[in-house]
Structures are given as structure tokens and as C-alpha cells.
Amino acid sequence: MTERPIDRLLEIMARLRAPEGGCPWDLEQTFATIAPYTVEEAYEVADAIERGDLKDLREELGDLLFQVVFHSRMAEEQGAFAFDDVVEAIVAKMIRRHPHVFGEADHRTSAEQTDAWEVIKAQERAEKGKTASLLDDVPVGLPALTRATKLSKRAARVGFVWPSITKVLEKLHEEVGELEVEIAAGDMDKARAELGDVLFVVANIARTLDIEPEDALRATNAKFTRRFQYIEAALRERGKTPEQSDLAEMDALWNAAKAAE
Questions:
Q1: Using CA atoms, how far apart are residues 102 and 96, in angstroms rounded to an integer?
Q2: Residue 82, SS3?
Q3: H/E segment holding residue 155
Q4: Residues near 257 by Cβ (< 8 Å), separated by ≥ 6?
Q5: How far apart are CA 246 and CA 250, in angstroms?
Q6: Count of CB atoms within 10 A of residue 203's CB?
Q7: Which of 42, 83, 181, 217 is deepest in the core (most CB within 10 A)?
Q8: pLDDT level of residue 113 (50, 70, 90 thresholds)
Q9: Ramachandran category for residue 52: left, alpha or beta (phi over 0 → left; psi -120 to 50 → alpha)
Q10: How far apart are alpha carbons 256 and 179 in whole angstroms?
Q11: Which is more confidently placed, 183 or 128?
């Protein structure tokens, strides 16, 4: 019988973590030390998708899979669970959360399925004893803007929500005004808190408009990078660097880059 690629990967991971003859670096790692790499690999997957590079996506998905294998191996060493348990758990979860596919439920639209999904997740939380708060299982480790959006979505499901986008925008203007007051007062601690309030309202705007804020910000980051690189290239043609330029010149080039798009 031909060995499956996943079996070979599991064998490699076990060898890397072998007390005798394993890799010293891999042996030193813990869940906590590997977690940042796991997050980084997830972002690299997203980056490959953003660039539309399927060859790179294949490689990055492999790197992310290796992270799953790494965590699973460390858990197996502690007698907690193994890779097969991870697979079985997600298989069971997907079947449980898709009764319209694997059961008798009749969800005809994506919206109906999403509503049913949230009901099932709430039942799962209750079964795990996570009933203290609707917000309990929104992961703290998420990027803050993503977590803010998820928190506001949870609260919105029980009616804790501004009635319209107009009201959310009014709240944004209010929070920006409060930020301006603290900046003018020179109180940076309060300004920091007010800036957080501004960003949380921005997350609510994203939720209200059904826009993923991380996607929107990534697109703006790419746009900024593209236009600033245009400025750098234009300055090089003039025999200059950004340090040798001034805001007026660079702003004019920025507008040229914007117009070129």
C-alpha cells in the first residue's frame, strides 16, 4: 500500500521531536513558542490569496498544515490528543453544523444556513458550560480589529446594535471629537483610550456594511505601498531620495500616482 503524504509528514514531525536524534530547535518548542509561527503562516496564506498566486498558496498551505501537525505532535507527547483526533473532531463538527447537507434540515439560502450555524454554535457553547457570556469564546488572540467586529456581531444578534449606519457614523464623529479633545489637552493616556473607541466604532461600521475590516485595511495598505513606491521611483528619476524631498513635492507625486490609477 502506498504511503499517504500526510503519513510521511507525521513521521517527519515525530522524527524532529524524537528525544534521541531529533532537532534541538524543534525539541525546545512549546505550544506558546510555536503559536506566533502558526499565526504568521495563516497570514502568509492570506497574502498568497490576495496576490492570486496559487503556486505560492500551495506552499503556504503546506506550511500552515505543518503547524497543525506540530501542535498535534506536542499534544500527543503529553497524552492529550493526536493528529487523527484533530481530524475526527473537525469532521464531526462539520457534519453537526451542516444538517442541511448531512441531515434532514432544510436551509435553502446562505442567510438561513448562517442563522442555523449560530444556533448550533450556541448549543455547543452551552454543552461545554460556556454560558456565562455570549462573548466568552471570541478568541482574545485575534487581530484586535477582527475581534472588535466579531464582538459587535455577537452583541448585534441580541439587539445590542445601532439602528442604522447613520447612527453608527454619528457615533464615529462623536468619538473623533472626544479624541481631538484629549489630544488638545495633551493627555495621551486618555487619547489612547479614545482612539480605541474610534477603532471600535470603525469595526461596527464594517459589521453594519458587511465588510471584513482586515480585508479593507489590507487593500488600503497595498494601495499606500503602491503609491509611495511611485513617489520613490519618480524621485529617483529626479536624482533624489524621499529624505531630499519635501511634503509638497511628495504630495504632488502622490496625486499623480492616484490619477495614474
A1: 8
A2: coil
A3: helix 144-157
A4: 226, 227, 230, 231
A5: 6
A6: 21
A7: 83
A8: confident
A9: left
A10: 32
A11: 183
Place of cell 453537526: 96
DSSP notation for 23-52: -HHHHH--HHHHHHHHHHHHHHHHHHHHHT
Long-range CB pairs of 212-221 (<8 Å, 24+ gap) are 212/146, 212/149, 213/145, 213/146, 213/148, 213/149, 214/143, 214/145, 214/146, 217/145, 218/46, 218/50
Say whether 105 sits in a helix, a strand or coil: coil
Let me know: does 157 contact 118? Beta carbons within 8 Å: yes
pTM beyond 0.85: no
How far apart are the C-alpha atoms of 198 and 204, rounded to whole Å?
10
pLDDT in tens, 204-238: 999 999 999 988 998 999 999 999 999 999 999 99
Domains in the chain and their CATH numbers? Answer: 5-96 (1.10.287.1080), 216-260 (no CATH)
Mean pLDDT of 15-39: 96
Q: C-alpha grid cell for residue 84? A: 487523527
- Chain position carrying cell 486618555: 190
pLDDT at 181 over 70: yes
Which position has the grid cell 512549546?
30
* Confidence band for 141, pLDDT divided at 50, 70 and 90: confident
* Of the listed ranges 59-63, 92-96, 237-241, the one predicted with least confidence: 92-96
**Average of pLDDT values for 106-121?**
73
Give the count of beta carbons closer than 10 Å to the beta carbon of residue 58: 10
Please, what is the average pLDDT of the chain?
91
> How far is 113 from 121, CA to CA, in rounded Å?
12
